[in-house]
């Protein structure tokens, strides 16, 4: 994450005293373990297990904890070295993925409807979806998912989702990132070979265009070999407190974290206004729009325009 902060110019935000304080991000994923990097009052303000209905927050996969660390980890266990983009934001955790990082559309739909219902009570302003549908997903399930994420957006909640790792073919962005409405994040550095699901791959980031929308993904962020929170067995109970993961799943919470920084300064911005600010503040990498969208996330520019 130290490398990511340099690339995205996050130090500008911290020099201004902007850390995402007061902004709540809902993360639908495999859960969150009890990690030192979000130990403290009101960091995780609500946990909901849509798979097994357990009451205490946990993560039996590790994917969700890694996402939480990228988005809002404090870096406590690393002496402040591996900290997230918005280290003072609040997090609502919805467990919709199992120990393999797999899930069912029904649980995701249930979770999205729950977020819509609880958004005012919990103050949810952003939803992070670091997952996508597989090639065998039924068309009607995809349509339901797309309809629900767009309704979350229409309710005034910013939805940030991954482009998926199914590239480099044209039109390879997975749902719900294939929605024209939501903010879809691709990988800025997928030319570098990385290990994803036990395979060494490159040029994996989902590419546009999609139906009715030429510019997809909306933007890109670093995705390769990202160091973030691992599965801690308890407070400081695991030597592997940080692990390396790669994929557009990792790029997505960087954008969610950047939006949390933005909303902590400008809380009245609408999802549409936020998307436009992201577009206007990106660094053009000189690649086709179907690969980079508007370009690379630049947090200094985002907070300055």
Structure description:
The protein has helices spanning 2-8, 11-15, 63-72, 105-122, 139-154, 248-265, 271-281, 289-292, 299-304; strands at 24-29, 44-49, 90-95, 124-129, 158-162, 183-187, 194-196, 199-201, 219-221, 226-229, 242-245. With 305 residues, it is of the alpha/beta class. A 7-stranded parallel beta sheet has the order 2-3-1-4-5-6-9, with helices on both faces. Strands 7-8 form a two-stranded antiparallel sheet. α3 (63-72) packs parallel to α6 (248-265) and α4 runs parallel beside α5. The radius of gyration is 17 Å and the shape is globular. It starts with a helix and ends with a helix. The relative contact order is 0.18. The model has no long low-confidence stretch (mean pLDDT 94).
Structure summary:
31% of the residues lie in helices and 17% in strands. The protein is an alpha/beta fold and 305 residues long.
Notable features of this structure?
305 residues; alpha/beta; 7-stranded parallel β-sheet; two-stranded antiparallel sheet; 9 helices
Question: What is the subunit arrangement here?
Answer: single chain
Alpha-beta classification: alpha/beta
Mean pLDDT: 94
- What level of helicity do the residues show? 25-40%
Gap between N and C termini, in Å?
A: 25 Å
Strand content: 15-25%
Helices and strands, in N-to-C order? HHEEHEHEHEEEEEEEHHHH
Number of helices: 9
Envelope shape? globular
The profile of the biggest β sheet is: 7 strands, parallel
Rg of Cα set: 17 Å
Q: Please count the beta strands (DSSP E, at least 2 residues each).
A: 11
Main β-sheet, spatial strand arrangement: 2-3-1-4-5-6-9
> What ranges have pLDDT less than 50 throughout 5 or more consecutive residues?
none
